[in-house]
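thread: overnight batch results

M.L. [08:02]
morning all. the overnight job finished for the chain we discussed friday. pasting input first so we're all looking at the same thing
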Amino acid sequence: MTALYVVYLLTFGLFVTNILASGSVWPGKWPAHAPESLEAIDVLDSGYPRGRGLRSTGRPCGPLTRELLAGVARNNTVLITAIDRLAWKSFGPSYVENIAAANITYWLVAALDPETSLTLGQLGVVNCFNAPKERLKYTGTDAMYHWGSHHWSQTTWNKVHVVRMVYELGFNIIHSDADVVWFRDPLPFFLSLLSGPAHIIISVDALSTHNNKGEVDVEYNSSPFTNINTGIYFIRQWPGGLAFFDEVWLPMQDKRIGHDQDGFNWVVRGGWFRQDIEPIAFIPPDTSLRVFYAAFSNTTAVAFLPSSMFGNTYTYVNARLWEVRSTGGCWGCWGLWKPYD
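M.L. [08:03]
and the structure it wrote out:
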């Protein structure tokens, strides 16, 4: 485990060094704000407590409404990130500045607690809303944010609940974890796939791609044999979309099998994820479609984001797939976490 930790630190260190050296991703100043303590603040709307005044330094986020989404969306699409006060301290300020540097305008942060809501207001962030508290199954907290902890796991499910709330209002969604670095606007890529067969296009933990160099498309080898990563995904509007959330993915939270990513791999890959799962995903004979159908929802078509365009820290820094296989560079990249032990 020590060796793994050393590799993680070296890889992440190289990643940050490469990014900062480029001068094109994060602006020079990072907001040093951390969310205020709950005792010191109070915010209104979306089920949060009432009774005390708002700080004069800034207004918190408001409620989630169709009007808010419509005012931000481009081509009926929004980029959503859900974050609480613990994750904000690690990723929030850099994520917000990075989004601006990538010229992405159709983004919104869902504040999962009052502290994050007020902090966003203090920083002048208007692209935000309070996640409706009454619609979240988990409202707890913890002292620290650890990969694999109970709080971390349940917070990942909160992200799915938030995405479902936005989806029911009729928008296509690009979901992004807060540890994602966006190098360029992904919307043109996703819009080009709206008429394709895939309903969900999602990132993976693959270390290579079967796409040709310079090819701008979903992964040719989109199959249930690869581990899926819910750090980045695009879900378009289709008639079975809400049913996928309500009847397939979200019910896995109560089965306590792990975090949202475990749940997604379970219902989509089925027996290819774990041998004790009876249904398996269906792979159509026509591989040119570049999709497969979910094990527990055989009308839901899933495709993968190629690792040459949407990678992780390893494929960006070490394998450098964006240089070897892509002519347009990397579009988005997410961090690798050290497992909590």
